[in-house]
Design goal:
By secondary structure, the protein is α+β, with helices and mostly antiparallel strands. Strand 4 and strand 5 form a beta hairpin.
Length: 172
């Protein structure tokens, strides 16, 4: 009888359900760098930076627009590239090296124009953190980059939101 009871119990017992869950984890690496810059601005910045790093004045010409500011004096015969080349011949200035250094730095949005370096809107060197001072070091002595009561006077580059390069100038 005991064996028969056991057999009946086994036959009438509810089937046990087993659920198996498989989890798959996928990791994808993005190869693009996200910036807050509009696409047209980033394209212009990247093109100018490549030309400056290569020391190629001619590669900058397509980015020069009418009204481009490069000096606080009058226009120079031959335009911006002639002016920058003359600075290289007659002074210690290295405009293309400086342009590349500036465009590698963080930017600031000022009056609707993307401007490099970020220090463009600083009123004095005293407004800068130690980290910001370190970032500006490739551009030279802070005493030369900032004049009392005037703000940042070092080399700076500006690009409009539509990608138009509007200035690369130093001084005031």
């Amino acid at each position: 009888g005991g064996a028969t009871g056991w057999l009946l119990a086994e036959e009438t017992r509810e089937a046990e359900t087993v659920t198996t869950t498989l989890t798959e984890t996928r990791t994808e690496t993005e190869t693009t760098v996200e910036t807050a810059l509009p696409e047209a601005v980033e394209e212009t910045r990247a093109g100018i930076l490549a030309a400056a790093e290569a020391g190629d004045y001619e590669a900058l010409r397509p980015y020069l627009s009418p009204g481009f500011r490069y000096t606080f004096g009058g226009p120079v015969e031959g335009g911006p590239t002639a002016y920058w080349q003359e600075l290289e011949r007659t002074t210690a200035e290295r405009p293309l090296e400086t342009l590349a250094a500036v465009l590698r730095m963080p930017y600031v949005l000022s009056r609707g124009i993307y401007v490099w370096p970020f220090a463009y809107t600083a009123e004095s060197a005293g407004d800068l953190s130690a980290h910001e001072r370190e970032l500006l070091a490739p551009l030279g002595d802070l005493g030369r980059l900032f004049a009392p009561g005037t703000g940042y006077l070092g080399w700076r580059a500006g690009i409009e939101p539509d990608g138009t390069w509007v200035f690369f100038v130093a001084g005031d």
